[in-house]
Amino acid sequence: MNNFFKELAETLVDRQELRMSIKKIGEDIVVVVTPDFKSGTKNIELSGTPDEMDENFLTEIKKPLEADKQFSSNAAEVTTEIEEEKETKEVKSKVTPKSTEKVAAKKVTPKVETPEEEKEEEEKIELEEVVENLETKTSDEIEAAIIEEVKIEEVKEEVKEKNQPTTKSFDELMAAGKQFFNDRLYQDAETSYKEALALKPDNEKAKAALKNATAWVKAVNNIKKPEETNA
What is the pLDDT of residue 15? Predict the structure, then answer.
């Protein structure tokens, strides 16, 4: 840490400001950093022993600062996808009349006996219809159709997730709480431990974990309050 301010100065741009709040909780140091490089950016929260903070503080602070400076573009990726769609269109345009007749024949085949086979046949027919549509569309229309299809699939997944049973076992809730706590998501950890304790009210491990998570939630909130008042 002999070069702390030198390394920090090299990371910041001219006139950039970092506001830090430091608090000791037990044997740990809790630091909340407020970067001003982007409006609405969340605070960076770090905690650990003094040795851990010496080792990791600058590395963790640099991540969001450096990320904000990096230029990124997906233009090359989009160009590649458009070229691939053009090649697909050229290949499909060479389909012979016989091949087209075979596709039509598949659409009028009798229903299969089992539900699994029926579903598979329907998926094949849908795929063939997509291929036929692609042959008559421009690359821009194909790209727009793909984007629309992706949006539809995302909505379906969201609905599917919402309809999934949300009941979790005691062990799953305890494991989730531990992961949240390790990720510094203390409020989420507190919620998981509360749900676990609701399943087993007398479990001492769950009681201890909830107490610890609640203490960290209060500690972080106490640090944020003076900052909000100053702002």
Answer: 76
User: What pTM does this model have?
Assistant: 0.30
In a domain, 80, yes or no: no
Shared domain for 175 and 153, answered yes or no, is: no
Residue 77 is assigned to a structural domain of this protein: no
Question: At 229, which amino acid appears?
Answer: T
The CA distance from 7 to 14, in Å, is 14
Q: In angstroms, what CA-CA distances link 89 with 54, 82, 133, 140, 230?
A: 58, 11, 10, 12, 61
Question: For residues 85 and 139, is the Cβ–Cβ distance under 8 A?
Answer: yes
Question: Can you give the length of the chain in residues?
Answer: 231
Domain span including residue 224:
170-230
> Domain total for the chain?
3
Considering the domain boundaries, does residue 92 fall inside one?
Answer: no
Provide mean pLDDT across the span 11-15.
76
pLDDT digits over 194-219, tens only?
999 999 999 999 999 999 999 999 99
* Of 85, 49, 60, nearest in space to 7 by CA: 60
Sorting pLDDT into bands at 50, 70 and 90, what band is 143? Answer: confident
Q: Give the contacts of 124 (CB within 8 A, at least 6 positions apart).
A: 106
- Read off the tokens for 9: 């100065």
**Of 167, 163, 143, nearest to 80 (Cα)?**
143
